[in-house]
Amino acid sequence: VGMRVLVGVKRVVDYAVKVRVRPDKTGVITEGVQHSMNPFDEIALEEAVKLKEKKSATEVVAFSMGGPKCQEVLRTALAKGADKAIHVEIPDADASKLEPLHVARALRKIIENDKFDAVFLGKQAIDDDANQTGSLLAGMLDWPQALYASKVEPDGKSLKVTREIDGGLDTIKVTLPAILSADLRLNEPRYATLPNIMKAKKKPLEKKTAKDLGIDLTPQTKVVEVSEPPVRQAGGFVDDVPTLIAKLKEKGFIKA
């Protein structure tokens, strides 16, 4: 019997958008800004769909937690090959305060209510860069985890995963059920074709609330301030090396 894979897909400000900080410094401007599926989650989804195409997985279920507009990324996930979708819908006002811990709690409840063999997530979301959900979920479920995957090979009741680490590549074997997080070089996500976008409209999208799952969304952290990075100083040109050395001495970078 093949794997049932649950894939987390987060709705984030599109990676091509220049993010602007709110005037009151409470966060970034999201109104009227293009949003899309978190790029690392797209890679995680692609890997799950590929496993299904190779008959290593039997079903791919996309999951998202957030405001009503998260349905857009779930429909995209269905158009890219997921079989069905689960949306844990919460009001937009609360969505901005969501933390990886809340998402991990929701995923745990979904898994407790319905059996899955693996959870695929992006290694991090490009909005908060937290890189925590996968590890928290693995801890809650007591499942093995394979993070920063750059290659995934199904092997019976386990996955052989090549991970990108600072010193090179690390290959591990995790017994299913397991948690996997996708790194950039794992694959190249497909585009959703028009026929598949049309088919996605007929695929099931189940809605749940935090109350249905019995999870507490009380924030554990508070954003004190969001600010722009300091503006970089303009550089200058010099004609030759002696002038460069003289300039560096003048600015105190080289002791005379």
From TrEMBL:
SUPFAM superfamilies attached to this UniProt entry: Adenine nucleotide alpha hydrolases-like (SSF52402)
Record CDD domains: ETF_beta
GO cellular component: mitochondrial matrix
UniProtKB keywords: Electron transport, Transport
Pfam short name (any one): ETF
UniProt cross-references to SMART domains, sorted A to Z: ETF
Cellular location(s): Mitochondrion matrix
Gene Ontology BP terms: amino acid catabolic process; fatty acid beta-oxidation using acyl-CoA dehydrogenase
Predominant subcellular localization, coarse grouping: mitochondrion
Domain Electron transfer flavoprotein alpha/beta-subunit N-terminal: 25-217
GO MF, one annotated term: electron transfer activity
Biological role: Heterodimeric electron transfer flavoprotein that accepts electrons from several mitochondrial dehydrogenases, including acyl-CoA dehydrogenases, glutaryl-CoA and sarcosine dehydrogenase. It transfers the electrons to the main mitochondrial respiratory chain via ETF-ubiquinone oxidoreductase. Required for normal mitochondrial fatty acid oxidation and normal amino acid metabolism. ETFB binds an AMP molecule that probably has a purely structural role.
PANTHER family linked: ELECTRON TRANSFER FLAVOPROTEIN BETA-SUBUNIT (PTHR21294), ELECTRON TRANSFER FLAVOPROTEIN SUBUNIT BETA (PTHR21294:SF8)
Family per similarity comment: Belongs to the ETF beta-subunit/FixA family.
Subunit structure and binding partners: Heterodimer composed of ETFA and ETFB. Identified in a complex that contains ETFA, ETFB and ETFRF1. Interacts with ACADM.
Full protein name: Electron transfer flavoprotein subunit beta
UniProt lineage: Eukaryota, Metazoa, Ecdysozoa, Nematoda, Chromadorea
